[in-house]
Structure formats: structure tokens, C-alpha cells
Amino acid sequence: xxxxxxxxxxxxxxxxPLSGVAEVPGDKSISHRSLILGAMAVGETRITGLLEGDDxxxxxxxxxAFGAEVTQHGPGxxxxxxxxxxxxxxxxxxxxxxxxxxxxxxxxxxxxxxxxTATFTGDASLNSRPMARVTDPLALFGTATHGRSKGRxxxxxVGAREPAAVRYVVPMPSxxxxxxxxxxxxxxxxxxxVIEKEATRDHTERMLAGFGAEVQIEHTDEGREITLTGQxxxxxxxxxxxxxxxxxxxxxxxxxxVPGSDVLVPTIGLNPTRAGLYETLRDMGADLTYENLREExxxxxxxxxxxxxxxxxGITVPAARAASMIDExxxxxxxxxxxKGRCHFEGVKELRVKESDRIDAMAVGLRANGVExxxxxxxxxxxxxxxxxxxxxxxxxxxxxIAMAFMVLGMAAQKAVSLDDGQPIATSFPxxxxxxxxxxxxxxxx
Length: 446
Ligand code: S3P
Description:
Blueprint: E1 10-13, E2 19-21, H1 28-40, E3 42-48, H2 54-65, E4 69-74, E5 77-83, E6 95-96, H3 101-111, E7 117-121, H4 132-140, E8 144-146, E9 155-158, E10 167-170, H5 175-185, E11 191-196, H6 203-210, E12 215-220, E13 223-229, E14 238-240, H7 245-257, E15 262-269, H8 276-283, E16 287-296, E17 299-307, E18 316-317, H9 329-338, E19 340-345, H10 358-368, E20 372-375, E21 380-385, E22 393-394, H11 400-412, E23 417-419, H12 432-439, E24 442-445
Parallel strand pairs: 2-15, 3-14, 6-7, 10-11, 18-19, 22-23
Antiparallel strand pairs: 1-23, 1-24, 3-5, 4-5, 7-9, 8-9, 11-13, 12-13, 15-17, 16-17, 19-21, 20-21
This protein binds shikimate-3-phosphate (S3P).
The site of shikimate-3-phosphate has 10 residues, from α5.
């Protein structure tokens, strides 16, 4: 669980050239799904390269509470002995998902059509986030939930005893909502149909098919339509979790703005539903190349090579690209401050309901460090001048990506940048400090 220990203040000093190889940890989205789908298969799923961040460890605990046997065999090596679709046991304790919106929303979906009653909670960040976006579609299956106002956690869920398959158009671009409905559909007889107007990360669909479920994807006038046939027997899998492109963003972006840098970030998935940041950086004029482009486990993968790029320019990032880089805007706003001109992000209001209000958190921290930022409910604009003064203390708001973005800012700003609490970094990137230090960053715990 994150957010329960003492705060860890940090300071990031101007760094010399960053160089070397950055082996970032496993993908957070795929790690959660490996544990949850493993718990719903019959028999043993083996996972290599699981992200051992707090968010995923909380999901592992939750799967144990629902009756699966989850075992760590070595670093990144895990197995899950699943209980089968419909086989969840009733947990005898409250399920604490810590900081993880993905964890709690996907697990609520998985539990929604099983004959269990479970209570979910999290840290102050998670308990302030909207859950009606998940509980509303789950109600269509016959699932009852009782939470605080706006459906917020702590929340008790009573699984539907006789679930009915649903057809649901997801009202906002959210892979978590899409996935919660699909996981609920697993134990509903008949076909559950989920329609998304804009494509979001597609790991749940791909992995459901990999575990042997019948999944069909069609593109219709309404959007991308996913049809899942309920009550399959899921077959355990051997899963190798690819490295996380959202974590790779930090060493890549740091290399682009620290003079003289040249960093290689190997084996990063370039699934188009996740790769928007890298296309955007290239559009800005970043010296970012894809080396050794290949396929691994059916996904496009490359080694990313990022070199210092003093001539980047501000661009407009269209709303259509937002879903494919939604977690990367905080660190992109830092890069934008070192580019020249206006960098304008459109269609980003989902950033306001992440682990923090990320538009507000970045705008306040960047302004404190001498960067001009404009914002509306749905847009953010950074006016880059090619240099940043720095010198301020920034608040992480219990948000790992805000914390890491400000530490990257400090590596290239004229004066060191401080952070009130770096503890949330452990939710997704527990080796951030040693990995960045090996490249040449100078982050200290204050
Ligand atoms: C995720 C979906 C995204 C993303 C989150 C991980 C997932 O959230 O921000 O970090 O694994 O499904 P939304 O579904 O709220 O956009």
C-alpha cells in the first residue's frame, strides 16, 4: 500500500550528460491483468517480468483474498493458481488497493458477477477518485454497490447472483472502464458487448483472447465494438510482461533535455494504443530513434535511443492522440518547457481524475519553477523558452507520475527542483532512483 508511510522529500540537481542503458520494469497495465486473469483461469499461470511496484503488489494481495494462490518465486517471477471464472471466494477482510485506480476498477469488474460481497478501499488519492464510471455499468449486470457520495471508496460490492450480459457504450475514453465491463462479462452467460468511441489500450482484449476466451473486435459507426462470449474456461498462460512504455518515458524525456545525453531504453512495446508520446516527441523534433524494431509476443517492440535535443519545438497534440499517451502528459509538459514555442495539449480532461488532477499539479509546479502554463478544463498549454529556472519545491499529490516528472525537471533546470514526497514513485517504478542515478542523474533524499 502506498501513502501510508512517512513522506520522502527528494531533491533533483542539474545533471551532467545522461548515458547508458535504462532497463525499466514491467508494464503496470499488463502486470495487473496477468494476476487477475491468472486468478480466473483454472490451473497455474506463470509470469516473468511482473512489475513489483506497490500497485501491482496490492492486486496480488487482492487475488489471494479472493482465493487464488499467488506466489513469488524470484525477482519478477510469479505464479498464480487460479480458481476459475465464477470461482472467487468471499474475502474475509477489506480489500485495500492502495493508490491503484487500475487495480480497484479491474478487480471490482472481476468480482461483480461472482457470488461474493467485498469491500474496497484505498489511500487518500484513490478514495477521492470517481468510481461511478465503473459501478454504473456494473449495475447493468445486476451488481449492487454502496459507496460514499459520487460512488467513491470505501465501497461495498455485492456480486450479481444471476448476472445478465450487457451491451455498454463507454462514455469516456477509459481502458479501466472497458476492462471492468469485460471482466464482469466473463461470468455472465451470453455475449457482453463493449463499445468504445476512441480506441484505448487493448491489453484486456488481447489477453482475454490469449487465455482462450472468445473475443471479437469490429469497427462500426458507433466505434470499436468488442464482443466477449461469457463463461469460458480460461486456460492458464505463461506470460512474459514487456517493459513499461509509460516508465520508459522518464529516462527518454530526461535524455532529450539534459545536454550531451545519449540513453538506450531497450525492449519497449510500441503497441499503437500506448505509443503516442514517442510519436509526439518525434513530431517535436526529438532525436529519438527506434532501433532493432521487431515483434515480441505479438507486439511491436523496439530499443528506444534518445539523445539530447536542443532544437525541439512546441506543437499541438490533438485530442485523438490523448488516449495513447494519457499517462505521459506530466513528463511531456516538462519536455515542452525546454522546447521552443507553445506546446498545446487538446482533449485531456481525463487528466483531472487521475491519481491527482494532473493538469493542475503540473501547472502549479511548473509555474513555481518559472514556466508559463495556461489551462482550461480540457486543455493545457506550456510556453517553452528552451530553458527553465527551477529552484522551487513541488507537490506530488500522492501521484507517482507527477513526482517523477518534477525530478526530471530538476535534471535540466538551472536550479535544483525539490519534491515534498517521492514515496508514490514506488507504485509504478520502484527502481527509479537507482536507475536514474546509474545514467548520471543526481536525485537525493532530502
Ligand atoms: C490503465 C488505463 C488508464 C491509465 C492507467 C492504466 C489501464 O486509465 O491512465 O494508468 O491499465 O487500464 P483510464 O482507464 O482511467 O484512462
